[in-house]
Write a structure and sequence with these properties.
With 386 residues, the protein is of the alpha/beta class. It contains 14 helices and 13 strands.
Length: 386
């Protein structure tokens, strides 16, 4: 199949479930590429294309439609997941429509580079139009871990998802570029940058949008910066993985729990290079008291790099809200480096006795069990209030 857009560079991105395709898509988008997720296009046409909805219902029964006519994807998935013939029938109906939508979006875009992500890219005609095929790869154990942590699957369900797909080795064998995502995020970024440089002769940026602050002095911190930004719902998988790595034996938050938590407090992300290494959750329990009640960091040594930047951002926001104090609830058995970061930022250890009433109210509402209190006074207006 001849590529209809000779002035555009088309990258086909594939790889089995939970191998890191979304990371590569995000990096390409930062460079200005048009990124197209074939699976997302499938969701859109199942929700919006009346003719396709009717055809799927004819083939698989009205039970795969919701009351408003859209396709009930979980119900449809149950029918085709373990039935190869049914899956082929469904794909034969969907793939031509998906190609049409993708062609329209490529033609309408001014972007000179297009990255198309599709888990079955190599099994269809889209691959023939790609200038290069990129494949993300990682160990099956990593895939299973990511599915359990980021999507809330139990181990048995995660294993079934991984085993149900075509062998990853077959995709790797057809790749022009293989991106190993088993290591730290920074290593994945380096591989993507190298592939981008080889194809276009200019690299992907090493830093995402966000505030940039120096990471320190000396050779060890050369080219290392901290980027501070607010967490978004799209960051939930990365935050869940950070929690898993930082506290592997602790009770796990579910995706829905963290999404709810994002609506109740602000989460600030600290990235060293491209890798999320620290997260702080904070809120205001009253109009005058800000509380830091969640802190996760991994590796531990990155606290000294990301911690000060996060605390500066929280203090600036608290000042703008005219808060009088920031209370930090730190784990009693936390690493020494954590306490040092807070002390260096002007926080002091405080006991529960002889604190202002408004502070005590916030402590009563928000202090997690097993934590000690450190405080930084921003405006000394209630020091004598009991």
């Amino acid at each position: 199949m001849r590529k209809p857009w000779p002035d555009k560079t088309i990258i086909g991105l594939t790889g089995n479930i939970a191998t890191g395709k979304s990371v590569v898509m995000r990096l390409a988008a930062q460079k200005g590429a048009l990124t197209l997720d074939a699976d997302q296009v499938v969701h859109e046409i199942m929700d919006q294309d009346a003719r396709l909805q009717a055809a799927i219902a004819d083939a698989f029964g009205e039970q795969v439609r919701t009351a408003d006519g859209r396709i009930d994807r979980p119900a449809l998935g149950t029918l085709v997941f373990n039935d190869p013939e049914a899956m082929r029938t469904l794909e034969g109906m969907i793939h031509p429509v998906v190609r049409q939508v993708i062609f329209q979006r490529i033609g309408a875009s001014a972007a000179g580079v297009v990255l198309i992500e599709a888990i079955k890219l190599l099994e269809g005609e889209l691959a023939q139009m790609c200038d290069q095929i990129w494949v993300t790869d990682c160990a099956a154990t990593t895939q299973i871990e990511r599915l359990m942590v980021c999507r809330g699957l139990d181990q048995e369900a995660a294993i079934l998802r991984v085993q149900a797909q075509n062998p990853q080795v077959e995709k790797v064998a057809q790749a022009d570029v293989v991106i190993d995502t088993d290591g730290p995020m920074a290593e994945t970024v380096k591989q993507v940058e190298a592939a981008w440089t080889a194809l276009f002769a200019h690299p992907l940026p090493e830093k995402p949008a966000g505030e940039s602050v120096p990471a320190g002095n000396g050779a060890e911190s050369e080219s290392r910066e901290v980027f501070v930004r607010r967490a978004r719902p799209a960051d939930i998988p990365a935050i869940l993985l950070l929690m898993q790595r930082a506290t592997p034996d602790a009770l796990r938050l579910r995706r829905a729990d963290l999404l709810h938590a994002l609506s109740e407090r602000s989460y600030l992300i600290g990235q060293v290079g491209a890798e999320i290494t620290m997260v702080m959750g904070w809120n205001t329990h009253s109009t005058t008291v800000a509380c830091i009640d969640q802190i996760v960091a991994h590796p531990v040594e990155t606290m000294a790099v990301a911690g000060p930047a996060l605390l500066r951002e929280i203090e600036q926001s608290a000042q703008e809200l005219i808060c009088e104090v920031i209370l930090a609830f730190l784990p009693e058995d936390g690493p020494d480096g954590l306490y040092q970061v807070f002390r260096a930022a002007g926080f002091q250890r405080r006991e529960i006795t002889n604190l202002p009433r408004v502070w005590l109210e916030s402590i009563d509402q928000g202090q997690p069990a097993g934590t000690l209190i450190m405080a930084k006074v921003l405006r000394d207006v209630r020091a004598s209030v009991k």
